[in-house]
TrEMBL record:
Signal peptide: none annotated. One of its GO terms (molecular function) is hydrolase activity. Keywords: Hydrolase. It comes from the Bacteria. Belongs to the AB hydrolase superfamily. AB hydrolase 2 family. Residues 19-209 form the Phospholipase/carboxylesterase/thioesterase domain. This is Esterase.
Amino acid sequence: MHPAYQYDIQYPPHMDPEKKYPVVFMLHGKGSNEQNMLNLAAPLNEEFIIVGIRGNLRLGNGYQYYDLISLGNPVRAMFDDAVGQLDAFIRYATDRYPIDPAKRYVLGFSQGAILSMTLALTMGDQLRGIVALNGYVPGFVKTEYDLKDVSQVAMFVSHGQFDTVFPIRIGHETAAYLETLSPRSLMFNIYETDHGVSGENQKDFANWLRQDAGITSNKE
């Protein structure tokens, strides 16, 4: 298989060749790139394989995974294609690299968060968990997609209290929807930010990922 996306992969510095590792697939926001997400994942570099996936569509100096008709309204065919291609990419990378298939996580910001939540809903327990930062679940995903059981999928969802792109009510609506599907494995946090990721948010999701993956760490 030739993957649909360019990507950058980072390994823990002292890898055991006989071991498989937990992985975090990183999905960037609209107009950004995989390097920004790799920087966001820096606290996880010693314990996880990190895969930054670049959107395949140019947008200014950055990239995107799909285009929009209007804010909150993805071009459906492009969105459907991105979900299918990302699913295929996750499976491709799992076969190609020393990845533990029972510890696959997807972490996304904004457009990447939208896709991470959609992948959880369409892949179900094929993913161990997701981190969704400032996103939402499109209405057509809720009503028209073939949704899988996510009761065993761990979810860390966060939103900026002062988000000017996706207002905070969208964060609350998203959390309420996911809670109906996965009440015991959802963590929803609000941070005093705009449409971005604070240092506190970064620290919290990194600690959450380590704990969920069963990693003992002395990091603060």
